[in-house]
Structures are given as C-alpha cells and as structure tokens.
Amino acid sequence: MKSANGRKIILRYLQAHNKDYTRLSKKLSYLLRHGAIKEGLSIKADGFVPVDQLLSKNLHGCTLEDIKKVVETNDKKRFVLRENNGTWEIKATQGHSINEINNLSLKPLDRVDFDIIHGTYYRNWENIKLKGLSCMRRNHIHFSKGLDFTCGLRKSADVYIYIDFEKAKRDGLKFFESENKIILCAGNDKGIIERKYFLKVYSKNGKILNLY
C-alpha cells in the first residue's frame, strides 16, 4: 500500500507529464456510478466493468496504466481494479445510482463504536429538517465514521448530522460499510432517513442546531 507521501510524489509526476488524471477520475466516477448502462457498458451486479470496454468506448487516448495510476493515487479509494481470468475490471466502491448494481462488497453493521455523520450545508438544512435525509438519485445515503474528512465527509460541509444508529436499527433501517470505509444506508422504502433518527446536529463552528 502506498503511503500518503508516496501518492503525492506520483501525483506530482503525473502532473508534470501533462496527464489530466483529475478529469479521468471524474469520468470514471460518472461511468461506474451512474452512466454505464446509458453508455452501453457491460456492468455486473457487483459494479465491475471491463476496462477494455471503457478504453474503447469512452476513454479514447487513455490506457490501462492511466487507470491503474488513478486507482492507486485516489486518496479516498473510490475505485477497485482487479484482474479476473485475464481481463482487467474496475468498479466504484460506492455512490451508485444504477439499480442493477445490488451485489457490492458491503459489510452489514450490527453495532458501531463510532459516530455516524452526514455532512451537508446550511442551505439544505431547513429542507432536511422538514423532509429528512434522502438518497436523491443514488442507491444509498452516505455517512462518515466520525468527523473523517478523508473518507465520507466533504471538507466544505458546514452542517454535521449525527444519526441515532440504535434507534434506526430497531426500526429496520440497515447500515453497511463500503470497501473504502464509507457508511451507507438506503433509508426507508421511500429512500428517506427521517428526522426522528437524527441524534444531534452541529454547525461547523460547533453550534448546536435545533431539530424542531
């Protein structure tokens, strides 16, 4: 496993050689999370897509080595690359909106020893307070394990919603952990986690926000 310093060295090398790996990473995220079927890619229930399809249909000018470097240097570990019977395949670890992806390597959570936190913004808070957290167009709502800004929580978020895991679990909500340590929940049958499962809500500066 590469150290953080090692990844930075590789990234500087890539930038020096004029490869737009940020753009490639964003393109991969779109294709693997949302656009695979629309773009005519063969995506499996576990989210894997053959790399040769990506290169021939959607990523002209890129190579397998480029994809390997994106996977290796992504600090949030958004992708998994594997060789399967001589064929290279890649998947996104979470964040999908494709309904057919229903066999990801997710670990069910029966108990937790960390805070489950969803990061959002003041501009969204009143709507969330009224309607709850929504999957929107994705298959799951995303959470971090504690205030982890490297995994699941955007640095720009200015509102932190803490979830009452035990209460939600008692009422049948199911939580999972992805391969890259993101906590996921599909919510209720409408894709919602209601306000009654909010344990507490803080602003970025530590102010407690009213739930009602």
TrEMBL record:
UniProt record, GO biological process: tRNA splicing, via endonucleolytic cleavage and ligation
EC number: 2.7.1.160
Keyword set includes NAD: yes
Broad class of enzyme this protein falls into: transferase
InterPro entries, A to Z: Ptrans_KptA/Tpt1, RNA_2'-PTrans_C, RNA_2'-PTrans_N
Keywords: NAD, Transferase
Sections of the chain in a coiled coil: none
Keyword Transferase: yes
Alphabetical list of Pfam families matching this protein: PTS_2-RNA
Record-level Gene Ontology MF annotations: tRNA 2'-phosphotransferase activity
Family: Belongs to the KptA/TPT1 family.
Protein purpose: Catalyzes the last step of tRNA splicing, the transfer of the splice junction 2'-phosphate from ligated tRNA to NAD to produce ADP-ribose 1''-2'' cyclic phosphate.
UniProt protein name: 2'-phosphotransferase
